């Protein structure tokens, strides 16, 4: 107690009167590191040349814009008051690469979700109906790849893509496995519960990005009802905007947000993030290889597609979202409709699915759209006439308060992730604080949306682990963030025996010895120990 | 008129996009001398690197005197006015230029007139690779304006070109007009291999020898002459090739019959 008192006396006092004080920002879904992000960097020199960052006495040089270099990513998040981010797609085979890049992403605490939805081990055990064994291997994988949550992308579709096919509903068969996406999602949601993982399954739905896919999304949410008990969420549907299209084809494509939002409002087992699109030139990247191929067919742009052995697939293609394109403008509207139609702000998180919907540096714009009807109207006015007609936004009066905003950018994100020390300023919280030069008592945030945008673009102060790292939008000092991962303890641990090594030889091109992410790979390790029920 | 003379031979690239009549407009000599440039990784002022003199003559607005082959991005994005360069100039001269005129009385390095949108660039010496081509990875390309090169040009000239005119009095290297979509190119001498690969539109006129015609082009006609621009015609007869068929393209390559006797094998397909 004495020491704490002495420490407090030495503490620097920041006068934050008349300013907005938030916990450090949390981002549940942002592609900032790993194999696909790096391939995105390689294929977009023309994206970097327009946003070159020179070094300063504190910061390193780098480039933006849609796929920034690692250091620039850290600095830019920190400048917006963010302190924790989640890298949502890590093929376990590329885990070492991902962690090397995360080590070089400063100012932030971070974690990665390994892609497990189409991993052959999971498919094999789910096919046999052996959930306990499946759970054991998922637990093993969390420690081996140093991951945080189960990421499922287009369940079954990625495995089918290896054979040039895809699944088109949650009851289509996955080739060679006699299993359906429904069984994969429910199986892994049950495994997630058995292992007591802090986050739910992190789900990218089937048929993503195709007109009429809101029906698949509703099917997906309904099928997960069987796993839910009580009020606890069992699945997080990520970038829901891309999964809420109605209509029969691209010409008749319209918003399915109303139906989807209504379902989520009436049920407690689903959380989601927006996947807001920004009208700009960006780079889309996802493990959903077949979807990226669809985008290539639409745009004819340069593209990359890959199959990651027995684990997943991947694809990258640059994309320019335009206001005068009906589909793009409708997509912009859908994300905001979803956010504003769902009454409980704890059920959703603000994201752009960086860089798929747009770079994370556009968050202040989204904040303005969420908090101000005037800001929404100003953007909608510039959109394609047809999209304006189809949009539900003009009928929506809702404007988020700063409290709601704190939930959707921090508290709710941390709660959904199960991060106990993040997203609040109570006892036990990490000393991550963001202060913005915005006085809500003097400024009507719904009217002065440009002031709001400026304030959230450059934080007055960002405090990471008790250190002031940003002041007035300038980086003051370098800080290394921690890498959070799960050490899941099952009653019977997976042993790497001869049988396992044989499977490795058969399934992967790497030897087992080169596969796991060993402790020395992680600069500042922050494992969370979890006691599993199996 | 402002006359800039390098104070020394530059060892490192000088990034000087401020050498632009629009930027100099209405600025005093001191203000011009204080403009920011980068020499290598050091931030400098224009006055640290160049002797700056004023001359009462009106045009050209800027004269760059002496060896400037390390000075890059001269006239980048300029909209009006005239720059005259006595000597060689560095990469990206006239990049994204929208109007006005740049005359290079020497050689221009790579990416001259890259992503050009208007105006005129005249190079009295040679132009290096990527003349009028976009930055790596980009599919922008020259959309308007005119480039005249009195000497030769390097490889990858006019990649992704959408419009405008390029006249080269000498020869060019390989990949001339790669992925070209529109506009006109006239080369008076020889052209390297892989000409117009993946072309979907536009016109390339070759009045010299062509190393080979890509296999995805088909012969369409023999024409006595072809229009380059208003008041300028190239005299033939020319073989006219259509392509690139692999891209379902509608581009045209005109190759002078007289200088390319080996192409007469195509005549039987007419």
Describe the structure.
The complex is a heterodimer of chains A (534) and B (270). Chain A is an alpha/beta fold. Chain A has one domain (25-531). Chain A contains 19 helices and 22 strands. In chain A, strands 1-17-18-19-20 form a 5-stranded antiparallel β-sheet, covered by helices on one side. In chain A, strands 7-8-9-12-16 form a 5-stranded parallel β-sheet. In chain A, strands 2-5-6 form a 3-stranded parallel β-sheet. In chain A, a hairpin with a 2-residue loop joins strand 18 (461-464) and strand 19 (467-471). In chain A, helix 6 (120-128) packs antiparallel against helix 7 (131-145) and helix 7 (131-145) crosses helix 9. Chain A starts with a helix and ends with a strand. Chain B is mainly β. Chain B has a domain at 126-269. Chain B is built from 3 helices and 17 strands. Chain B has helices spanning 21-24, 29-33, 46-49; strands at residues 2-6, 14-15, 36-39, 42-45, 50-54, 62-65, 71-72, 82-86, 101-104, 120-123, 146-149, 165-168, 184-187, 203-206, 218-229, 232-243, 251-256. A 13-stranded mixed β-sheet of chain B has the order 5-1-6-8-9-10-11-12-13-14-17-16-15. The longest helix of chain B is centred in the N-terminal third of the chain and has 5 residues, at 29-33. Chain B is elongated. Classes of the chains: A alpha/beta (534), B mainly beta (270).
What descriptors fit this protein?
heterodimer; A: 534 residues; alpha/beta; five-stranded antiparallel beta sheet; five-stranded parallel beta sheet; 19 helices; 22 strands; 36% helix; 18% strand; B: 270 residues; mainly beta; 13-stranded mixed beta sheet; four-stranded mixed beta sheet; 3 helices; 17 strands; 5% helix; elongated
């Amino acid at each position: 107690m004495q020491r704490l008192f002495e420490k407090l006396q030495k503490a620097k006092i920041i006068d934050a009167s008349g300013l907005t004080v938030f916990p450090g920002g949390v981002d549940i879904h942002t592609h900032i590191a790993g194999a696909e992000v790096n391939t995105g960097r390689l294929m977009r020199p023309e994206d970097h040349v327009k946003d070159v960052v020179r070094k300063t006495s504190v910061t390193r040089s780098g480039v933006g814009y849609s796929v920034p270099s690692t250091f620039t990513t850290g600095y830019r998040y920190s400048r917006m008051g963010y302190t924790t981010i989640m890298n949502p797609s890590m093929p376990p085979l590329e885990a070492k690469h991902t962690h090397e890049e995360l080590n070089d992403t400063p100012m932030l605490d971070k974690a990665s979700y390994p892609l497990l939805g189409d991993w052959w081990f999971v498919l094999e055990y789910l096919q046999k109906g052996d959930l306990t064994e499946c759970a054991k291997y998922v637990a093993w994988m969390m420690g081996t790849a140093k991951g945080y949550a189960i990421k499922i992308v287009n369940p079954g579709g990625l495995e089918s893509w290896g054979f040039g096919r895809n699944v088109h509903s949650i009851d289509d068969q996955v080739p060679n496995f006699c299993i359906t996406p429904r069984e994969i999602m429910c199986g892994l949601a049950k495994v997630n519960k058995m292992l007591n993982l802090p986050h739910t399954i992190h789900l990218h739905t089937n048929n993503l990005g195709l007109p009429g896919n809101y029906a698949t999304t509703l099917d997906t949410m309904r099928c997960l009802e069987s796993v839910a008990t009580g009020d606890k969420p069992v699945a997080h549907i990520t970038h829901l905007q891309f999964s809420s299209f109605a209509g029969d084809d691209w010409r008749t494509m319209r918003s399915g947000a109303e139906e989807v939002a209504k379902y989520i409002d009436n049920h407690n087992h689903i959380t989601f993030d927006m996947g807001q699109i920004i009208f700009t030139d960006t780079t889309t990247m996802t493990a959903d290889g077949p979807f990226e191929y669809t985008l290539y067919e639409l745009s004819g742009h340069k593209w990359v597609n890959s199959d990651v052995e027995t684990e997943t697939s991947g694809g990258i293609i640059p994309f320019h979202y335009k206001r005068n394109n009906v589909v793009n403008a409708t997509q912009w509207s859908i994300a905001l409709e979803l956010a504003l139609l769902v009454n409980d702000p704890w059920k959703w998180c603000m994201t752009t699915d960086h860089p798929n919907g747009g770079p994370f540096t556009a968050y202040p714009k989204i904040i303005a759209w969420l908090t101000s009807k005037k800001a929404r109207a100003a953007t909608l006015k510039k959109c394609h006439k047809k999209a304006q007609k189809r949009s539900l936004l003009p009928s929506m009066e809702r404007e988020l308060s700063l409290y709601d905003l704190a939930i959707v950018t921090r508290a709710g994100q941390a709660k959904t992730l199960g991060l106990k020390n993040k997203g609040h300023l109570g006892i036990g919280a990490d000393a991550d604080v963001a202060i913005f030069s915005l006085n809500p008592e003097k400024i009507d945030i719904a009217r002065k949306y440009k002031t709001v945008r400026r304030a959230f673009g450059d934080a007055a102060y960002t405090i990471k682990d008790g250190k002031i790292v940003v002041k007035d939008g300038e980086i003051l000092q370098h800080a290394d963030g921690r890498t959070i991962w799960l050490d899941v303890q099952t009653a019977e641990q997976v042993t790497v025996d001869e049988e396992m090594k044989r499977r490795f030889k058969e399934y992967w091109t790497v030897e087992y010895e080169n596969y796991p992410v060993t402790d020395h790979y992680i600069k500042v390790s922050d494992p969370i120990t979890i006691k599993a029920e199996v | 008129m402002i006359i800039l003379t390098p104070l020394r031979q530059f060892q490192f690239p000088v990034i000087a996009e401020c050498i632009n009549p629009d930027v100099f407009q209405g600025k005093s000599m001191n203000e011009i001398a204080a403009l920011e440039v980068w020499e290598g990784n050091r931030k400098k002022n224009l006055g640290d690197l160049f002797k700056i003199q004023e001359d009462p003559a009106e045009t050209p607005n800027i004269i760059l005197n002496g060896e400037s082959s390390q000075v890059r991005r001269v006239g980048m994005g300029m909209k009006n006015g005239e720059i005259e360069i006595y000597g060689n100039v560095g990469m990206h001269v006239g990049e994204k230029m929208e109007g006005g005129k740049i005359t290079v009385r020497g050689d221009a390095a790579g990416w001259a007139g890259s992503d050009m949108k208007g105006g005129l660039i005249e190079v009295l010496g040679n132009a290096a690779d990527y003349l009028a081509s976009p930055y790596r990875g980009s599919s922008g390309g020259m959309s308007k304006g005119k480039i005249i090169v009195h000497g030769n040009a390097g490889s990858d000239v006019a990649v992704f070109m959408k419009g405008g005119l390029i006249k080269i009095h000498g020869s060019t290297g390989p990949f001339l007009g790669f992925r070209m979509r529109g506009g006109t190119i006239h080369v008076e001498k020889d052209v390297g291999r892989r000409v117009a690969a993946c072309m979907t539109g536009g016109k390339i006129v070759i009045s010299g020898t062509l190393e080979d015609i890509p296999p995805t082009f088909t012969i369409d006609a023999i024409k006595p002459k072809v229009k380059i621009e208003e008041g300028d015609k190239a005299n033939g007869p020319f073989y006219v090739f259509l392509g690139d068929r692999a891209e379902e393209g509608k581009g045209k390559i005109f190759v002078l019959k007289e200088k390319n006797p080996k192409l007469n094998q195509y005549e039987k397909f007419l």
